[in-house]
Design brief:
Blueprint (H helix, E strand, L loop, with lengths): L4 H32 L7 E2 L2 E2 H33 L5 H24 L16 H31 L7 H32 L8 H29 L1 H4 L7 H14 L16 H14 L1 H20 L20 H24 L1 H7 L4 H7 L2 H21 L6 H27 L23 H31 L30 H25 L34
Antiparallel strand pairs: 1-2
Helix pairs in contact: 1-2, 1-3, 1-14, 1-16, 2-3, 2-4, 2-14, 3-4, 4-5, 5-6, 5-8, 6-14, 6-17, 8-10, 8-17, 11-13, 11-14, 11-15, 13-15, 14-15, 14-16, 15-16
The chain binds heme-as (HAS).
């Protein structure tokens, strides 16, 4: 589909700006591994301290880049499948808010006024403007979604009998979940944290803010994942030379995410005393359930790859794997997708370990957790972002991709780097290595009394992996920005590789109607969060504690802070 100038400018801005910031995100990621391995034994480098760098790494990579990508990919999906541009008011307003919010946050992080990490847990305090910036970014993304709904309604009128394309359904599921889950974090940021950080209120209920954050924080991880799944179901079968094994299974997997991803955030709070055992048990069961659509995806996408391998002449049980277009520069997207999937096998399995309450007690707050999430968010999520960003930039700008052979090897280098980084973090985590800690200041500094020799190998492996990831990212940046600054040689267009379905399956009405699923999603969220909220108010109350990110010492001395809270129906023995 041809594209208007203003829609083109919006899409290119939404790809170029976060990719430029991602340079800062990657730099700070590599620095983390140097601090942790003890190569750096100081608080700060070039005026950026450990926590400031970690905050930039998390906020830019996990919130800014992913949200921009979800919006831009959504625009391109609507353009390609519905053959229409969304209304100008929606895509323009959305991009302006997102860019403004991001710039506010980036300036604050560089100035050191926001260094409470991407989870911005109270009682760590950011500048009040940080909460405004983050809210603008999120609200901007909602507005893009509202525009797509208007476009879809028009398309539906003109095509009353056509099935909703899978990629459109997946995008709508993702953004519905996003809107539902970002209401609690908007409340947390604007109603609780902002007035408190501006000094208009004094007290803060820490467990309440953490619960509100995780009501958003876990659906957030699926908001990162679903664009990647959309690419695996609707693009990968085409670029690997096959067909999608089952369209109904794909629809079912996305709709299951809609009902199961919103109520599971409490699994990040298994170690918090305010949550009662029954709540934790229920959430643990729901978390196992939310793995089901991923197991379905492993089967359906795996079967689609087998179909592709066999179409390319494979015989026997397993040699279809060797017939796939590995290292094929004409099919460079395949490398990004398959490397993401391979990492996700281990990312997913480690998630199931996390979800098991008893095992969580061993791994929580250790290096195991970032080991897990680098094989998920830095696995399928980021690799699809990288592959699709350069693809979309080239199509929408009409510029040919430069350095195609480098673009083709980047995902494999990234795969090896991420596997090493995660292995080091997880092995260290199992030996008690804490996450979010500048280990070089003590535990991995041989001249310090707290030096721990057991963490030397694990942190060194992590560092080697981190440096390889940094190198892969550097090569990618060279190719991406050479493409972006190249000359326009082709007609600009909005188009995607589109996989056909292998079988003509009987449509199942429930898989074509989102309303019952939205209802169940809200119901399960209420069933989980009403008891969780009761737990929070039973066992906690607002306190005056105030900490700075770089110091664990409470700035406010008050006997009130040590008061033990017991519910009316409990006695201390
Ligand atoms: Fe997680 C913590 C549980 C998935 C991200 N997770 C995190 C954090 C992040 C994160 C960022 O229950 C840390 C947050 C913080 O800062 O504190 N997670 C899970 C579970 C899943 C899961 C059960 N997580 C993700 C995804 C993420 C992500 C996806 C980002 C994108 N996670 C947890 C828990 C915690 C947690 C606890 C709290 C830990 C703590 O104590 O702090 C599941 O959804 C995973 C299911 C996945 C699978 C894998 C399916 C495999 C596929 C690949 C197939 C391969 C093929 C290729 C087809 C079952 C689809 C074949 C090709 C050939 C050639 C052979």
């Amino acid at each position: 589909m041809n594209i208007s100038k203003s829609f083109q400018r919006t899409i290119l801005t939404g790809l170029f700006m976060p990719m430029s910031l991602f340079i800062l995100g990657v730099y700070n990621g590599v620095m983390q591994t140097l601090y942790r391995a003890g190569v750096l034994q100081q608080e700060a480098v070039a005026g950026i301290n450990y926590y400031q760098g970690l905050t930039m790494h998390g906020v830019i990579n996990a919130i800014v880049l992913t949200t921009f990508f979800a919006v831009v990919f959504g625009h391109v999906i609507m353009g390609h499948y519905l053959k229409k541009e969304p209304p100008k008011w929606s895509y323009k307003t959305s991009m302006i808010l997102m860019v403004a919010g991001t710039l506010i946050d980036v300036v604050l992080m560089i100035m050191g006024k926001a260094q409470a990490l991407y989870t911005f847990y109270a009682p760590l305090k950011n500048s009040p403007l940080f909460y405004v910036g983050t809210s603008l970014l999120i609200i901007g993304s909602w507005i893009a979604f509202f525009g797509w709904i208007a476009t879809y309604k028009e398309w539906r009128k003109e095509n009353p009998d056509t099935k909703m394309p899978i990629a459109v359904l997946a995008t709508f599921v993702n953004f519905t979940m996003w809107v539902i889950s970002s209401i609690p974090v908007a409340y947390e940021s604007l109603v609780i944290l902002l007035p408190w950080s501006a000094g208009w209120t004094e007290d803060i209920n820490v467990p309440l803010t953490r619960m509100l954050f995780w009501m958003f924080g876990h659906p957030l991880v699926y908001f990162w994942l679903l664009p990647a799944y959309t690419a695996f179901y609707t693009i990968l079968p085409k670029v690997s030379g096959g067909k999608l094994y089952s369209g109904n299974a794909a629809r079912m997997a996305f709709l299951l995410f809609l009902i199961l991803s919103t109520p599971v955030g409490v699994h990040h709070q298994f170690s918090e005393p305010v949550m009662e055992q029954g709540t934790k048990m229920w959430v643990s069961i729901l978390t196992f359930a939310v793995s089901i659509p991923s197991f379905m995806t492993a089967f359906t996408v795996g079967a689609s790859l087998e179909v592709a391998g066999r179409k390319r002449g494979a015989k026997g049980l397993l040699n279809w794997m060797t017939h796939l277009p590995w290292f094929d520069s004409k099919n460079y997207l395949f490398g990004y997708f398959i490397c993401g999937l391979l990492l996700f096998i281990f990312g997913g399995l480690s998630g199931i370990v996390n979800a098991s309450y008893a095992l969580n007690q061993m791994v929580h707050n250790t290096g195991w957790v970032p080991g897990h999430f680098h094989m998920t968010v830095a696995g399928p999520t980021l690799l699809v972002i990288l592959g699709m960003s350069i693809y979309m930039y080239s199509k929408v700008s009409g510029k040919k991709i430069k350095m195609l052979s480098i673009v083709t090897i980047v995902p494999y280098l990234w795969l090896i780097g991420t596997a090493l980084l995660s292995h080091g973090l997880m092995a260290g985590g199992l030996m008690g290595e804490p996450r979010r800690t500048n280990l070089g200041m003590s535990y991995t500094n041989p001249s310090h009394e707290l030096f721990n020799q057991y963490w030397v190998n694990s942190t060194t492996t992590t560092m080697i992996g981190g440096i390889m990831m940094g190198l892969a990212a550097f090569l990618y940046f060279v190719a991406f920005f050479s493409t972006a600054f190249g000359k326009t040689t082709e007609q600009a267009s909005v188009e995607l590789p589109e996989a056909e379905e292998l079988h003509e399956e009987k449509p199942i009405p429930l898989l074509h109607n989102m309303k019952p699923w939205i209802f169940v999603s809200i119901l399960l969220t209420l069933i989980t969060y009403i008891p969780s909220l009761k737990n929070v108010f039973k066992y906690s109350e607002p306190v005056k504690n105030k900490f700075e990110a770089e110091s664990p010492v409470n700035k406010i001395e008050s006997s009130n802070n040590t008061k033990q809270i017991i519910s009316k129906d409990e006695k201390i023995e």
